[in-house]
Write a sequence for this structure.
């Protein structure tokens, strides 16, 4: 009799919990994907890639020039006057300084632009998610990674949130 009563109590608790869970409207968003698929992010990412490419080309040109001057020193250093040899060494030192400075400045510039990119696109994300949840009657929207180990596709709101972020950017 005692086992029977425990079984009934457990069944009642389980059915109550199931009924309450059925009333919750829950979704999840892959935040990284939502941000990276916005047009604003794609445009800014493209500009960032162009900036990196420009800096890499400038560094390549400086490095080639340094190698050329080193070659000149190796070939003519023994027959040049001490003044000419020192002038070439000074030129090489100036090129090395320019290379290091360009490398540091370029890295710093790329870092700033990357932060701007991430802040600019991500700043409105949580407002968009909150508004979407309120407008569509969601009780909870979770971040897919690392919170959701599994979720059916019908609960994935990433595409909708990406659309809202794009609309907000216009």
């Amino acid at each position: 009799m005692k086992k029977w009563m425990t079984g009934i109590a457990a069944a009642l608790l389980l059915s109550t919990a199931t009924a309450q869970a059925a009333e919750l409207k829950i979704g999840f968003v892959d935040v990284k994907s939502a941000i990276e698929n916005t047009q604003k992010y794609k445009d800014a990412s493209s500009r960032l890639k162009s900036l990196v490419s420009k800096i890499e080309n400038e560094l390549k040109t400086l490095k080639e020039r340094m190698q050329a001057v080193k070659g000149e020193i190796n070939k003519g250093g023994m027959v040049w006057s001490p003044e000419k040899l020192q002038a070439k060494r000074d030129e090489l030192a100036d090129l090395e300084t320019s290379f290091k400075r360009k490398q540091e400045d370029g890295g710093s510039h790329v870092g700033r632009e990357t932060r701007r990119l991430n802040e600019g696109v991500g700043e409105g994300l949580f407002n968009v998610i909150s508004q979407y949840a309120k407008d569509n009657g969601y009780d909870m929207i979770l971040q897919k990674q690392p919170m959701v180990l599994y979720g059916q596709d019908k609960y994935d709101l990433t595409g909708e949130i990406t659309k809202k972020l794009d609309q907000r950017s216009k």
